Amino acid sequence: MSDGAHNTPVDAFLDQYFEDVEAGTVRQLSDYLALFPDDQDLIAAEYVALQGRTTSAESAGDALGPYRLEEELGRGGQGIVYKATDTRIDRTVALKVLRGLGPGAEGLLVRFKREAAAASKADHPGVCAVYDVDVTGGIPYIAMRYIEGETLAKRIATTREVTAADTAPTVIALDEVDFEDDPDTSVDQGTTSSGSQTRSDVMRVVRLVEKVARALHAVHEAGVIHRDVKPGNVMITPQGEAVVMDFGIARDEESDLQTLTRSGDLFGTPSYMSPEQLTRQSIRVDRRTDVWSLGVMLYECVTLERPFEAPSREGLYQQILAREPEDPRRLNPSVPRDLVTVIATALDKDRERRYQTAHDLAEDLRRIRSYEPIQAKPVGRLTRVVRWAQRNPAVAAALAVVLLSLSAGLFIALWQKSLANDALVETETARVSAESEKSLADDAREEAETARTRAESEKSLADAAREEAVTARGRAVREKSVADA
């Protein structure tokens, strides 16, 4: 878990290093130096020291207050967790020995104890109970319920290793986990469109995250916000139960006291932090920030990829604030369309449009398993564009100017083309009119020529008739002369 009380490059490196230790994905020194370019000498020294450390300040058999340390279970950003025995009542506990609290640790532990007590008010089997918070010999520790099993982060890392080996799984492996109380996870074993995944594979993940959501809802109803929900803070028991742990930076909604983090500091694990967490104290976080983290966790469980990743924290923050995650179906075609909608709703950057409670999210996950219609609605393309513009006003304004300029240029070009077309039409009309008038003149000329020809023909016929008449009269005169003779 990220220790929000630190904000130096070295502290940021330590947070990331111990997060990687939890997940079993410790990187090379060069990778960490690329992630944290400031104070590289100190970071390199810390890395070498951490790599060379084989034993801790405490070892098995040592005592810390009334607790006898049995074995180291793991290391995180805030300290080392041991399996221990409470010698007073012979109870096995998980003992977290805190690191790096510095002077005044007792005062910080008092506030932590108050917040841990608030988290314990949930009294839910899916919430890891805190039994004791104290300081012995200057060493602060927290005694918690000991849980058999492994973290969800470890399960994701293990599945990623299998994926790297044969590229088959695209969803975390939960086949060996017995969900005895949930028959829905054992039905419908047919393969999906991906050919390699089954509905049951995805539904087991859905059921697990649903359990986490219900546990968080109980915590929220007790007035506590976790603020660091991530796979490393969720244990999976052999019985298939999910248990939420590590309320180190939780906030009691009913308390005005400061938490372990200083005012204005970022707290939480960056990859799982909500947009409002990145705004520091300008927005008071509420239960919806845990809903966002659940959405990130659900996305990672069904795709083996985080929705937001970048080589630097600044780049990661920018992605969380401004970029939409890739459609999970592109990474895993087995993901049902309704589950895509549920994830998108949980990861809505506007918390007013997000699931308002973890219970609402849990209920939609139950509906998916039960083949019931979900309450969340998919976001349309127009709405996505509007939301993007709201998140990126400067870029949107610049694009609007470009679009207006292009539109104006296009309008002018079309207007000029229209004028040219009108002139062309007028020219063509004049040409057609001239040709029509010429045709009419030619017709008139032909008619006149025809009339002239007809008149000449008629005159010729008249002349012939006149000649015949003269001939006939001459013949008649001759005949009369003959007769008179």
Distance between the termini: 163 Å
The main pleated sheet reads as:
6 strands, antiparallel
| Strand line-up across the major sheet | 1-2-3-4-6-5
Q: What is the C-alpha radius of gyration, as a whole number of Å? A: 44 Å
The best one-word shape is rod-shaped
The pLDDT mean sits at: 79
**Tally of DSSP helical segments:** 14
Query: Would you identify the regions where 5 or more consecutive residues have pLDDT less than 50?
Result: 1-6, 53-57, 185-196, 254-266
Strand % is: 5-15%
Provide the succession of SSEs: HHHEEEEHEEEHHEEEEHHHHHHHH
Quantity of strands, as a count: 11
Instruction: Look at the helices and sheets and give the structural class.
Output: alpha+beta
Report helical residue fraction: 40-55%
SSE arrangement:
Elements: H1 9-23, H2 29-35, H3 40-52, E1 63-64, E2 67-75, E3 79-86, E4 91-98, H4 105-120, E5 130-136, E6 139-145, E7 150-151, H5 152-166, H6 199-221, E8 224-225, E9 234-236, E10 242-244, E11 251-252, H7 275-278, H8 287-303, H9 313-322, H10 328-331, H11 337-346, H12 358-369, H13 381-391, H14 393-484
Antiparallel strand pairs: 1-2, 2-3, 3-4, 4-6, 5-6, 7-9, 8-11, 9-10
Helix pairs in contact: 1-3, 6-8, 6-12, 8-11, 11-12, 13-14
